[in-house]
Amino acid sequence: MATKYETVIGLEIHAELSTDSKLFCNCKTTFGADSNTQTCPICLGMPGVLPVLNKRALEFAIKAALAMNCKIAQFSKFDRKNYFYPDLPKGYQISQYSLPLSYEGYLEYEFDGEIKRCGVTRVHLEEDAGKLVHEGVTNNPNISHVDFNRSCVPLIEIVGEPDLRSPAEAIAFWRAVKEVLEYLGVSDCNMEEGSYRCDANISLRPVGSEEYGTRTELKNQNSFRNVQAALEYEEKRQAKILDEGGEVIQETRLFDVEREVTRSMRQKEEAHDYRYFPEPDLVPIEVDERWVTEIHSTLPELPMYRRQRFVKEYQIPEYDASFLTATRQMADYYEECVKLSHDPKTCSNWIMVDLSSLLNDAGQSIEECKVTPKHLNDMIKMIKSGAISGKIGKTVLEEIFVSGKTPQQVVQEKGLIQISDESEIEDIIEQVITANPKPVQQYREGKKKVIGFLVGQVMKLTKGKANPRLVNKIFQEKLGG
Ligand code: ADP
Ligand code: ZN
Ligand code: MG
To answer: Which residues of 161-172 are buried (b: 16+ CB within 10 A; e: fewer)?
Structure first.
């Protein structure tokens, strides 16, 4: 894109909170339940009902706000955001407008090998709307149904400052926020289920200009790829308009995934269009300072910092550190292993390669894994002491993964102890030499590569249990180096 303009992007991120019940009633929030089975008069918006705030949702919102370095308002309140839509039975959404729960924060994230900082204007609480179901309801394409299960599910909105300077940077920030919320355990951020989405605002301004240009907004996106593509398209579209001396119109645009273009949806929507006013059925929120301190003390080390610490403290490559800190549970698991073995790189290798492939194949996460850090460490110790070979180690790991037995048990039950008895190995080598006169002759004539074949024969006869170092040594002695 032309260097004449600077891109300015600000994100409004929505995340559904992982509470068991909804924001203002006791209905369940489980995803995927049959339509309208998780509803009650409150979340259906019947007149005369009284919403009551879910304390857990408030706690989660405060936790997220603190992780984004926000100040927590001692006094905040809910407002009604009025608009008409079929999935919004009340005709308004309960949100926070004039006095939000938190404000003036920021989040650090990595982009292009650098640590960047994006301001967070506010993190506030609101309720989600229902969902229109257009497909698979009846055979009539003109009929849509509405499912209110999602109505009143707690959401936080994280309003980012317009501090992002490219589509790729915006995605890096959006990913970083997701990672943080997952680490905190306040949202599962499942994008396919719509629990993590964003509105992306973008404008251009001449390089060097202080003033922001007119922005367009891309609504309700839930894919990293699509947001990036949509923003890149907007960058070009706006640049062209400006190049031609035109003016960008402030509007909401939709991204057409198939054709990779954005299209105007509606123009200029402002706060006054919503006729915000205070929600009269909910008491304002007064947060106890001690409670905030308590929540603050439960914040985990955030993923970016943990990743950096892993590289420094354990001397492992960036790649390993990223992999191992991808989830908090994985990072905890890894640190448990290192604590036991004092061998960070060996632990990392076993987890990243062998254990991960077992987890992947079984569709399991590390929390469900039967291989405990102690199992892994005991197995690594057996390899180091020469009791089993590295190759047998893989077999042992597979067995523990299925049965949850200790490595000692597995090795004993399956007779996997490495053969390190020289005379026993010598006997087998004699057999192999006798049975393979031709390769032996080739070896003696200088074709050293055949040693691989001969060693392989020994391993076959011992089911991989012969100590490879000894096998090689004895072959050398018998056949010459
Ligand atoms: P609303 O969308 O409710 O009107 P704001 O006007 O405060 O709210 O802005 C919402 C989002 O738009 C914020 O994330 C902010 O960073 C971003 N934003 C505001 N102005 C611009 C701009 N000129 N260019 C790009 N993003 C912007
Ligand atoms: Zn309900
Ligand atoms: Mg907006």
So the answer is: ebbbebbebbbb
11 touches ligand 1 (CB under 6 Å): yes
Structure tokens at 156: 């936080």
pLDDT digit string, tens, across residues 148-183 = 999 999 999 999 999 999 999 999 999 999 999 999
CB neighbour burial string for 23-55, b if at least 16 within 10 angstroms, e if fewer: bbbebebebeeeeeebbeebbbbeeebebebbe
Nearest atom (ligand 1) to Cα of 10: 16
Ranges of beta strands (E only) in 241-376 are 251-256, 261-267, 277-278, 285-286
Q: Is the CB of 119 under 6 A from ligand 1?
A: no
**What's the 3-state SS for 285-299?**
EECCHHHHHHHHHCC
Atom of ligand 1 nearest to the CA of 12: 14
Spell out the residues 6+ positions from residue 194 whose beta carbon is closer than 8 angstroms to its own. Answer: 16, 150, 222
Residues of the chain with pLDDT under 70: 1-2, 268-271, 481
Cα–Cα distances in angstroms (integers) from residue 355 to residues 321, 323, 359, 369, in the given order: 16, 13, 6, 9
Does the beta carbon of 170 sit less than 6 angstroms from any atom of ligand 1? no
**Which bound ligand lies closest to the C-alpha atom of 160?**
1
Q: What is the DSSP letter of 450?
A: G
Identify the CATH assignment for 422-479 out of 3.30.70.2750, 2.40.50.140, 1.10.15.40, 1.10.10.410: 1.10.10.410
What is the residue extent of each domain of the chain? 5-294, 303-414, 422-479
> Exposed, middle or buried by CB within 10 Å (0-12, 13-18, 19+), for 20?
exposed
Q: Measured from the CB, is residue 161 less than 6 Å from ligand 1?
A: yes
Please name the amino acid found at residue 477. E
The pLDDT assigned to 268 comes to 64
- If we measure between CA atoms, which residue out of 101, 302, 320 comes closest to residue 182? 302
For the segment 304-353, what is each residue's pLDDT rounded down to a tens digit?
A: 999 999 999 999 999 999 999 999 999 999 999 999 999 999 999 999 99
Mutate to test the pocket of ligand 1, among 5, 159, 238 (most ligand atoms within 8 A of CB): 159
User: Which helix or strand (DSSP H or E) is residue 26 part of?
Assistant: none
Looking at the CA of residue 161, tell me the nearest atom of ligand 1: 16
- Going by C-alpha positions, the residue among 141, 173, 217 that lies closest to residue 68 is 173
Residue type, 327: T
